Amino acid sequence: MTKLFVSICLLFLVSFTAFSQKIITTLPIDPHAKDTLSNWTKKNKIGFDISEIAFVNWNAGGTSSISGLLKTQFKRIYTKDNYNWSNELIMRYGLNKQDGIELRKTDDVFQFNSAFGYRNDTISNWYHTAKFNFNTQFTNGYAYPNKEISVSKPFAPAYVFLGLGAEYATKKKDRMLYLSPFTSKMTFVLDQRLANLGTFGVVKAVYDSSGNLVREGEKSKIELGFLLTAYYKKEIVKNVTIENKLSLYSDYINRFGNVDIDYDLSLDLIVNSHIRTNIGAHFIYDDDIKAKENIDGTQITVGPKLQLKQVLGVGIVYLF
Fold it and tell me: Can you list the domains of the chain with their CATH numbers?
């Protein structure tokens, strides 16, 4: 079954690449070109990464596995005079299957970002900016191998950032720095079981001495704090691009100075217009997120820890 699936995927990759190359050869249009009749610029990216390893009578041993990751990114940017409105939708979903182990999720992201900026003149790179960010996931998350009890769900959590500040952005938008002294961070946990446990920083449920529920946990938490975000993208050598995203947030009311960190590093290696290799690392530290560990088959909640996700993928990318 695994070999058949791999064969189908490889056939799809080859066919898609050939078809896309034919389209581009026939219609040599820059997909990122701005419509001269409109103030809107659009950028669309769809990618699919696949990795597979198989063992047959392999003396050193090993476990056969196959992984797939679907990635999409859609941008809509409005520019007129001193105004700029940027919108971005990012979606990712990945799965992994190993022999003898059930299908497992490897990545799950739904993210929408919007920023509206105004500058005093057309020369300045500084904008007065209002930003909105929304993050959640598509399906339940588990602390494997335990797949009976979910540790996260769609909209549990969901994060909303809304703030005002100043942003420095180059003309190519390859270097950006955003400072906001007034940013509201809203955390939603719309699953009552997870809310009762106090996951992701919401107020947990209250029980009496007999274990009876007195008050259910709250499904939301609102914070007001300071936000700093930075973005840097550069082609370090030909066809090799590095991209950095950093976000630092600290709440004024609850332990100001305790900083939530979100850092995403990506290295993009371009083989041709459709085939690319991506190497990435994502670091997250949030004092409100408690780690889960399985000890002797029992899932235990421990303190906050640095979260790390490392990615290495090879696949196709289609721009339009």
Answer: 73-94+109-312 (2.40.160)
